[in-house]
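Quick one, T. Sequence first:
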Amino acid sequence: MALKENDLKWFRPLWRRVAVAVFLLLWLGWELFFTRDSFWALLVGAALAYVAWNFFYAFPKEQPDDALPPAGSADDKDRQDP
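Structure tokens:
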């Protein structure tokens, strides 16, 4: 499932994606080593797998602004007043 445009904007900074992944990793450790509840461990593990895939593998890369040509350069040449 792909992330929505608002989600992409909010999760664009890397630190937010890492923070969510670390939180889920700590929660998974808690469920596995302290509570030993397999249902919640499975649920949190699935959420961690989803986050790992969408936040770090399939997340769209940032495109630098330098890749786009300047907006006015082509218009200035083509538009010449008589």
